[in-house]
Amino acid sequence: MDGEKQNGIGEKVKEAGRAAASIAREVGKRMFGGGLTCVNCGTDLFSDGHFCEHCLDTLPLNSGFICDKCGRAIGEDYPVCLECKAAMPTYTAARSAFVYEGDIVRLVKKFKTGGKYLAEAFAERVLPTLVSVFSDADLLAFVPMTNRAEKRRGYNQSELLAAELSLRTGIPLERELLVKVRETSAQKELSRRERAENLKGCFRVHERKLCRGKTIVLVDDVMTTGATANAIASALFGAGARQVYLLTFASVPDRRK
């Protein structure tokens, strides 16, 4: 993809984002002392959306060169990053709204640790990609948690984000489609190969008939190595899915970026 085409997509996504913000406002906003404030910096908002103009200009939007397959930020205009070239992901394609760095890391952590209200703000930013890049989606799914893990946290943040996107687009959200059948070890310190082995067989498709011939968008808050998405995509393709896309609020950039 050449630079001019990539810039054109970036502008298209920004325009769609502004339109999505208007829709989001009708759905509801978080209120702070009677006024609307930016979810990132806390400054008062005087326009639609959950982020102020300054934050939208300074936060690491994933709008530069990206890998056509995994959607990660890359340093140069190549079709696919070296990681995908070495081991092509199972899912069809992935995209994210932001690069996982700076204040985005803090926001994602807050989303996982009680900040359920951020689902609206996150949905606002990923909605343009869903309606423009993954416009052929038949249904939405999310990365499931075990019952024990979800009870411990109190909610599944990926489900909250998927629900907001379903509300805004009308694309059905299949809450019972996927099941995580066992707990897995913490993935943070594991290699790519170790992560894949750790996740092997831990996701199951509960409603297989819903997958047959369908294009499914898997929703999550952040993509790190993509091992989770690969494991789930394998299960969905095994159940007859036609295409499996991954849509996240943020993604870790290519390490050689």
N-to-C SSE string, H for helix and E for strand: HHHEHHEHHEHEEHE
Number of strands: 6
**Which segments are poorly predicted (pLDDT under 50) over 5 or more consecutive residues?**
18-34
Going across the major beta sheet, what is the strand order?
A: 1-6-5-2
Oligomer: single chain
Short synopsis of the structure:
39% of the residues lie in helices and 14% in strands. Helix 5 crosses helix 7.
Describe this structure in words.
The chain has helices at 3-27, 53-58, 82-86, 103-112, 118-132, 147-153, 157-169, 192-199, 227-238, and strands spanning 93-99, 139-142, 178-180, 203-205, 215-223, 243-251. The chain is of the alpha/beta class and 257 residues long. The protein has one domain (3-251): Rossmann fold. The strands form two sheets. It has a four-stranded parallel β-sheet with strand order 1-6-5-2. The chain has a two-stranded antiparallel sheet with strand order 3-4. Helix 1 packs across helix 5 (118-132), helix 5 (118-132) crosses helix 7 and helix 8 crosses helix 9 (227-238). Residues 18-34 have low confidence and may be disordered.
